[in-house]
Amino acid sequence: MQFTFLKKQFIGALALVAFSSFSIAAPADKGIVESITNKLNTLDISVSSINPSPVDGLYEVLTDRGVYYVSKNAQFLVHGNIYDLDNKMENVTEKSLTVLRQEKLKAFEKDMIVYKAEKEKHVITVFTDTSCGYCQKLHAEMADYNNLGITVRYLAFPRGGVNSNTYNTMVSIWCADDSKLAMDKAKSRKQIDAKSCNNNVKEQHALGQFFGVTGTPALVLEDGSLQPGYLPAARLITLLEQNKG
Predict the structure, then answer these.
(1) Cα–Cα distance list, 222 to 4, 122, 178, 228 (Å)
(2) Does 221 lie in the same domain as 119?
(3) Last residue of a domain, one of 65, 93, 121
(4) CA–CA distance from 178 to each of 138, 184, 194 (Å)?
(5) How many CA atoms lie within 13 A of 216 on its CB side?
(6) FRET partner for 104 with CA separation of 20 to 30 A, picked from 126, 202, 219, 234?
(7) What is the CATH number of the domain that holds 38?
(8) Which of 65, 101, 129, 153 is catalytic?
(9) Which residues lie closer than 8 Å to 176 by C-beta, 6 or more apart?
(10) Cβ–Cβ < 8 Å for 59, 72
(11) Pick the catalytic residue: 132, 144, 177, 223?
(12) Helix, strand or coil for residue 53?
């Protein structure tokens, strides 16, 4: 069954209206968990966990497609960010995701293609697509990032999905004898040898979707926050230093 998302404006309105009944919810009982899980499974959405949200009557559901908020009776779903109006508009949804991203990335560390800074100060993880112009630009400036102490770790995110030509290219990169060399060539729009092997490029793409990646490059910073789009090295180091402080 195909799932159609609500328009962002409408979702935002729902999230803000929901805060009129802000409270700390009781733990979800087994029946609620089962009901919500079954309903989302009918939409081909796989549920990882279900916990009370800060909004009375809504449950925070972590899925293979990101974070959703679902009503207690499993009838209504809200997709979008929840903000705490009493705490300087804190993004409650993003706060949950930052911790989750940090944890999930650990399982993929051995699969990353890493461009390590000699004097490492910061480590970022970049969901990349070899056909993406700004991904190519970022890669062409790799020395700038490394010279500022930024280590760049790549995970694959073919924007066209797992049936695209870019997906096949990225499989070839991850299966190459020298993945960094293959990445360098592909990002320079050079032909690389087609390769196939045991790989988890599909799972890397799914991880990006789970994190909320919708385009490339998408940067996951050390604190787990998601920074969409290209940033030149000078701006990125400023952001990283600010987050660190």
Answers:
(1) 32, 7, 27, 14
(2) yes
(3) 93
(4) 20, 10, 13
(5) 26
(6) 234
(7) 3.10.450.70
(8) 129
(9) 182, 192, 193, 195
(10) yes
(11) 132
(12) coil
**Known catalytic residue: 44?**
no
Q: Bridge partners of 22?
A: 55
Q: pLDDT, tens digit, for every residue of 25-67? A: 445 689 999 999 999 999 999 898 899 999 999 999 988 777 8
Residue 129 is among the residues annotated as catalytic for this protein = yes
Each residue's pLDDT tens digit, 72-113: 999 999 998 999 999 999 998 888 888 889 889 999 999 999
Boundaries of domain holding 66: 8-93
Q: Give the whole-angstrom CA distance, residue 31 versus residue 192.
A: 52
Work out how many domains the chain is built from and give that number: 2
Active-site hit among 65, 101, 111, 135: 135
Cα 94 to Cα 81: distance, rounded to the nearest angstrom = 7
Mark whether 85 and 116 lie in a shared domain.
Answer: no
Regarding whether 25 and 81 lie in a shared domain, the answer is yes
The last residue of a domain, from among 58, 93, 128? 93
Q: Are residues 32 and 121 in the same domain?
A: no
Is 159 annotated as catalytic?
Answer: yes
Active site residue 197: no
Is residue 3 a part of any domain in this protein? no
Residue 105 phi/psi, 5-degree rounding, is -65, -30
- Pair (67, 130) in one structural domain: no
